[in-house]
Every structure is written in structure tokens, then in C-alpha cells.
Amino acid sequence: MDSSADPMIRLEGVTKRYPDGTVAVDELNLEVPAGEVVVLVGPSGCGKTTTMKMVNRLVEPTEGHIHVGGDDATDIDPVELRRHIGYVIQQVGLFPHRTILENTMTVPRLLGWDKTRARARARELLQLVGLDPDIHADRYPQQLSGGQRQRVGVARALAADPPVLLMDEPFGAVDPIVRDHLQAEFLRLQREVQKTVLFVTHDIDEAVRVGDRIAVFAQGGRLEQYDTSTTVLGNPASPFVADFVGADRGLKRLAVTPIDLAGLEHPPVVRLRAPCAEAARVMRQADSRWAVVLDDEDNLHGWVDVASCEGAGAHDRGVVEHARRMEAWVPVNAPLKLAFAEMLQHNAGWIAVLDGDRYLGVLTPRTLHAALRRSVEAETEGIPPDQVELDTVG
User: What per-residue confidence (pLDDT) applies to 162?
Assistant: First the structure.
């Protein structure tokens, strides 16, 4: 296998038909761009796992061609092929009689790496997936939690630095809290290693969270839609896809819609060192009951209301004595889902958007809804979100 070739997966007219006539995958054409995570999703028995297993030839296709890293997979010895493709499954499959370090070294050793190099790589990968090698390297799988074992499975799959990673329901066997943490850790890891990933799940929420693109399969191994998660949620290609992603697909889309900076609102701002009389005047001029409080470097300090600044003796004091802590805020790179969650958690009518500590503006339910609508319209019309004009009522 030419590991220097562009690491991508391409399936051309791939069909898997069993001797009894059952069609598991039906004339599938699919490309996985280099460095992206493509999620195969659909109901049980739709062919998504079969598709994945055909990529590393655990299942042989009946028809069609599969290219991995620029090479035709059928021209490569299956064992050699699998040693250059990382593979993570739901039950991990660690060797119980080997330590965590030995498990992680498995593929590099099979590829002929010397022991010193393999050990160094294994320790590096354990650190990368959030397991301290000084603590975990000499333990055995049964001494780890389910989430920790799953992290070891990912480390083992990455140990030989494969260009392609296959992940079959990798987080399906752990509880929801651990699953959430593992998904977040996977996204962090992917930002660092930039592998080409084919990821199988039955959970559309997981698909939306981790995938750059989503392939929705129907029964009989038919590909119903293949597009970005925002398009699949905003413009389902068929009634089947619309039903599969759910009637709450608008809420799901919040998870993949970024904050629209152009749509932020800008309430009055007062400085931390300003006198209350000045702050009250600013709020009255803006016909606002409150103002954002910033320090001299535009960092968010909190907020203050006009009643506090106009109370008995308040005019002779500074804003710093009346400013309240801002509990509801999100970083600028957060999705709208997090912003909405913060609004609900703090029962807030608005939340601050920050770039580090620097204040950029506030997001309200109205602007959040507008950002979501703008994202959907942009996908539909094929234009940038800032060029979308929204119709308003009244």
C-alpha cells in the first residue's frame, strides 16, 4: 500500500450480494475526502457496517471497486491492507493478557518496528488520548473503565500512524456521560491528527456532532443522501431522510450552526471605572434598563442595571461597586446549541459572546433564531449566510 498517496476512500459501484440473494449494499458510490470524518448512519440492517468492513476487506464486495489511499484495495494483500488502516470497534477487543502499553504497541510490532520505537509511540498515543502512560501503561484492560478501554482502542488504532481510520459504533457501549466525553475527546484528537475517518453509528445526534459529512442509508443498502450535516438536517433529500433525522432536526441543526457575529446585538456599554451617574445617563439615552460592563481592555466584567446606578447615593459611587457577575456567556467558536443551552440554564434573555475575555456582543433568542434561519437559507440558496435576507413579520 502506498502510504504516501492521498489518504482518502473511494467506493465505485460497490455492491454486496449474499448467496441467498440478499443485497446488503446496493451500487454504492461514495468518496471520503482526505482529513474528513464521514459518518455512515441508518437503521439496523441498512448496510453501513458491511460498507465499512468492505473497505478493509473483512467483507469482500460482490461488485465494484474500493480505493484506499489511491490504491485499489483488491490488489493488496488483506492482512497488509489492515495493518495500514486503523480499526476501532464498539467492544474494543483488547488482549486481556497484555498490558495497556503492549496492546497499544500491537500493530507497530507487527509492522516490524523495534521495541524501543514501538514503546515510545505507544506512550505518546496514550498521552494523546488522555491516559497518563506513567499510570496506565502497565495496567491490564480489566483494570480500566469502559471509557478508558475505548481510549486505548483509539490509541492502538492510531499507533502505526495509518492514513485511514475506521470506527464502528466506537462509543456505543458506554453510558451517555462517558459517551459525551469520548465524542469531545475524539473531536479534539481529530483536530490534531487529521485522519480520514469512516465512522459508523445508528445515532443521528452523534453523527451530527462528529461528522463533517453524513451518509444516510436506507434498508437494502441504498444511499439516500450524502452531504454535510447542515444540509442533511436543513434539506433532507427524501421523506425517509426527513423521518430518520427526526422532526426536531431544527434543534439538531443548532449543534452544527456557528454563532453569527454579524447578527449579534450591541446593548449599551459602560466602563468599570466610570461613575454611576455616567452609566445611568448612557442607559437612559439608549432606553435600556441595563448595560454591559467592560474594563479598559474591552474584557467582560459583568453587567449593571439602571436602578442600581440611580439608587440612593449611587451617583457618588463607581460602576465597579454595583456591577454583577455575568453568568451566561459562550466563546465565539461555540455552536448555537451551546448558546441556547446557556440561555435555558441561566434563564437568561441574552448571553454574552466572548473571544477569549474580549467582549463581542450579545446573543438573544431573536438573533439565535435568525442565525439558524440564515444558515438554512444559505444552504438552500447556495450563498454565504451574510448575504441572506430574512423576511420578517410586521
Answer: 87
